[in-house]
Each structure stands twice: as C-alpha cells, then as structure tokens.
Amino acid sequence: MRPLSRLVLTVVTFSLIGGMATPAMSHDLPSVGPEVETPALFDDEAGHNANGDDPAIWLHPSQSGKSVVITTAKEGGLFVYDLDGRQLQHFPAPAAPGPDDEPGRFNNVDVTYGFGGRDLAVVSDRGRDILRIYAISGGRLTDVTDPAAPFVFNATQQEVNEAQTAYGLTTWKDSTGTYALVSRRHKTSVGLVKLLQGPGGTVGYQLVRTLDLPASFTLPNGQTWTPCMEPGELAQVEGMVVDQERDVLYAAQEDVGIWRMRADLTGTPVLMDKVREYGVPGSYDPETEECTPGADPGYGGRHLSADAEGLTIYYREDGKGYLMASSQGDGTFAVYRREGSNAYLKQFRIGQDDGIDGVENSDGSAVLNVPMGDFDEGLFVAHDGANTPAVPDRENTNFKFTGWGDIAEELDLDVDTDGWNPRD
User: Fold this and answer.
1) Which of 84, 92, 247, 379 has its CA 20 to 30 A from that of 358?
2) Which has the closest alpha carbon to 41: 70, 79, 7?
3) Residue 333 and residue 402: Cα distance in Å, rounded?
4) Domain BPP spans what residues (predicted)?
5) What is the enclosing helix (H) or strand (E) of 237?
6) Is residue 344 a contact partner of residue 332, using CB atoms and an 8 Å limit?
C-alpha cells in the first residue's frame, strides 16, 4: 500500500542559470593517482552479475583507521571494504519474489549516523523498489530492514516489474527525523522518504512527498527540447547529495545537469549547471537502441559531459567547501564552490599511478575530510566503470581510493580536517 501521508507536488516553478564557454580538453586537466583499489567485480554469471556503482564511507566513532567503504554492485549486492581495499563483507541482493519478477539490484548507498542510537547504511534496491537498511557496528553490517517495508514508488509487484523503481539515493537528517532522498528510474521524480523504527529493532520507512523535475525545457531560441530517450523513458536523476549544514539537496539529472533545491523538496529548484549536450536534439533508433544527435545549438554547459552522475561534498570548518560531480561522459570530476551560487572552480581526473589504473565512466563517489588510516588528510572514493586489466567479454568494475591531500595539492584546493564531519 502507498502511505496515506504521501503528497505529490505536481506544480513547481523551476529556475535555470548558467552560461557558455569553450570547455577545456579533458586530457589537459590535472590527474591525481589513486592509492588503493578494490578487487575486480565482473558483471556475468561467473561473477554473480556484480557491477560496481556507488560508494559510501562509514567513519568509525573512535578509531578512524577502522572506517570502512560500503559499495553497491547491482545484482551482485553490497560489498564492504577496509581502507586497504580488502573485502570484509558481502551481502547478495535478494532473489526475485516470483518466477516472472525482477531480482534485487542494489543501485546507490549512503550512510546516516545516530538513528535510534545506531549508524545505518541505506541502499536503494532498484530491482525490488524497496530500501534495504543495514545497521553498522564496529565496521560490521547487519541487515535490519523491516520485512513489512513497502515499495517506495509503486503499489503492486506488477508495477515494480515495469522498472519505474527506486534508483538514486542519499540521506539527510534534520530536527524532524532521518530521511532518504530517492529518485525514480526512467522518471524525473525524487521522493522524500522518512526512516521509521520497526518492530524488533528493524527499520522501515514511509514516502512523505515527491517532486517531479522537468522532462522538457524551453531553449533561448524559443524551441522546446526534450532529452532523447528510449520510448516511455524520461531524463532520470541518479547522483544526489545533501549539504547537511544547509539542508540543500543537489541532484544530477543525467542528461540535463545538476539541480539545487531544498532537501525537504519544497521551494524552487535551480539548475545550477548543465551538461554540454543540453539542448542538442536527438532521434532514437529502435534498431540500434541508440540516439543519433543533431546539430548542437550551443546552449549547453561547460563542465559536464553526459551523464552527470555521482555528487559528493567536502566540508570546511568556515562553512565553505566543495561540491564535486562525476562528468561521466569524459571521465572527469568537476569541482564547484559549496557556498553561494556554487561557482565552478576546477576539473580533474583520477589517472593511472603506481600500477593502479585510473577512473572512467564513474557512477558514484564519496569524500570525507576526516583523517582515516593512511589517508591522513581525508579520502575520496570513486567507482571505476572500466577497470583494467581488461578481461575479454567480461565487464570489469571496481572502486579507487585517493587521498584528498593529493587532490587538494594538485588543484590548489584546501585541506581542512576540522570541518564538519558526519559525527558532529
């Protein structure tokens, strides 16, 4: 059943900002080498259909060197690694509830602290349209999902099988409770979901309200532009992050750009940056299942090549800091000011170094300013969608760990280990 308290916001005013400039070539950008990588994941039967996607960092309350990185791998489930990239735990995704139903498929993960005295990892299961919730103690995870937890966006299993399910995810806390912001696959919707104490120490949730971002846009020439998609699909959101000190949600609409809005999904969303492909017409070819682009009218942004993907925030003590976004189309990361109108600052890539390959096609990333083990100036973790060495006929992914101090030095950014951290 859908919660009775659900409120759908169907009329919203949207603001667009941003300008045009010639983008820098990605090969001219600073490159920072990773220090650690996790084992390869293979998206085939032999690899249990494990396809890396999104990381989150859990900070140990007293021994930061024992912090862990929690990652999703779609049908492969959830993997937990130590700071040396060694696997500590693995949770398979749930089986399909019926022979004609979709199996579990873990898409995004985030960590929240102090819910009923426990730290939690919250996961979007896009195969089942549910949230899976894990309690974290000493770096070990335990599944505490309420068995009676409802579908996030759907009312029936048949609707779930049509694939318009929970997709991207981030967490947020305020004085009224602990929430997940969850996007809907193949839709422009983002939902606000409140976590609830369940029976026997389990954790459930309830959808509070949803907001629909635009599916079409009026261009400066007066024409209407709709991103080219497969029939029946709209421009979805995946990468999201909340500025926990400002209660601001940033949401990456993959073929459009990055939106800034109130975390409670009220108010007026602002499109703070656009992908370069914004405004480019396209026609879908059902034979190739690809979109053929038309002439670029020149209305796109400067810094992001579609898809706009993983978002994460580096906090400084002075209330400033950095918002970082994965520019998946060119394998780079864009850095914006955290404060004000989120002015663009820098661009970089995670490149090959000391026997570890770089990052390409990144879906998700996470950064934390707290010293952790050998990462004494903070840690940046990124999904690598094209791990090497390549194995013929096997899709190969993993996660790369990079010291924030190395990124900051290369880009002339700040290191501030006294800034806000999730245990403050």
Assistant:
1) 92
2) 79
3) 13
4) 22-411
5) strand 237-243
6) no
Rounded Cα distance, 169 and 190, in Å: 9
Q: What is the rounded CA–CA span in Å between residue 385 and residue 382?
A: 9
- pLDDT tens for each residue of 335-392: 999 999 999 999 999 999 999 999 999 999 999 999 999 999 999 999 999 999 999 9
Structure tokens at 181: 């912001």
CA separation for the pair 58, 423 (Å, rounded):
10
pTM score, whole prediction: 0.94
d(CA 333, CA 335): 7
Contact 103, 94 (CB under 8 A): yes
CB count within 10 Å of CB 278 equals 26
What is d(CA 379, CA 120) in angstroms, rounded to the nearest whole number? 20
- In this predicted structure, what is the pLDDT of residue 27? 63
Spatial distance between the Cα atoms of 170 and 181, rounded to a whole number of angstroms: 5
Of 333, 356, 400, the C-alpha closest to 81 is 400
- Element containing residue 42 per DSSP (H, E): strand 41-42
Report yes or no: 88 and 138 within 8 Å, Cβ to Cβ: no
Token pair listed for 31: 């490159």
Gap between the Cα atoms of 222 and 224, Å rounded: 7
344-350 and 31-32 strand pairing: parallel
Element (H, E) at 114: strand 106-115
**Each residue of 222-237: pLDDT tens digit?**
999 999 999 999 999 9
Beta bridge partners of 23: none
Instruction: Please state, in angstroms and as integers, the Cα–Cα distance from residue 23 to each residue in 20, 30, 40, 305, following that order.
Output: 9, 14, 33, 10
Query: Collapsing DSSP states into helix, strand and coil, what is residue 411?
Result: helix
Q: How far apart are CA 310 and CA 315, in angstroms?
A: 17
